Amino acid sequence: MEVVILADAETVGAVAADAIEALVRRKPSAVLGLATGSSPLPVYDELARRHAAAGLSFADCHGFALDEYVGLRPGHPESYREVVRREFTERVDIDPSHVHGPDGSTADVRAACAEYEAAIRAVGGIDLQILGIGTDGHIGFNEPGSSLTSRTRIKSLTEQTRADNARFFDGDVDQVPHHVITQGLGTISDARHVVLVAMGEGKAGAVRDLVEGPVRAFCPASILQMHRHVTVLVDDAAARQLELAAYYRQSYQHKPAWQGI
Ligand code: F6R
Description:
It is a single chain. By secondary structure, the protein is of the alpha/beta class. It contains 8 helices and 10 strands. Strands 1-10-9-6-2-3-5 form a 7-stranded parallel sheet, sandwiched between helices. Strands 4-8-7 form a 3-stranded antiparallel sheet. It binds fructose -6-phosphate. Fructose -6-phosphate is lined by residues 35-39, 66-67, 80, 132-134, 138-141.
């Protein structure tokens, strides 16, 4: 696991975009795992900017959303299908038929989850998964107690997560669904490169538990310690509780330029 402490959200977005650009130039048919929420927005902004300014093309890429609320009406502006479209895919040249998300309005959740896993496998698996982290340590919507080997399935949100996400629903927690369909921790762990981004002091405890705590279902993100290629990009505020912050800074500062993240 590499931890990179950066000055601000814009720099986090640029460093993540560097890794995605390098991947897409090396492999134009790259498969991207797409998180939603506020954390990845600087990444999507930077990718959209590079598409417009430098012709970075996603035409042959595939995208898979990490998760979806259950029960929002199709087209609801806060459904993750809509968020992914609005914040990323409609701002670049990816083929809309290459962009997938779990079906949160399905009548057969089990079948929809199995189909989602099969769709990811059919394109060869996810090359690079973008992640945020919840204040309770969730990744995707794998809440505390999630099986560390779980696959795409339905989960109940914690009240903490519902309260955190009320800001997307006019501040009204009652509008936040109780259920979601999320890629599992096993599904996320299959991605060849995981890039987790976290900004702000509110994430400092979760980032500490992810990076320096024990691997345990109580902090689902801690499963990333078992992954071969994980990059954690944080700003100063989100890094505030890291015991080895000086070491992470020093390592990144002296890293060979050819290595990338
Ligand atoms: C979103 C997702 C969640 C968020 C997390 C942090 O697709 O899976 O894990 O990444 O809840 O959300 P923000 O970035 O809004 O703080």
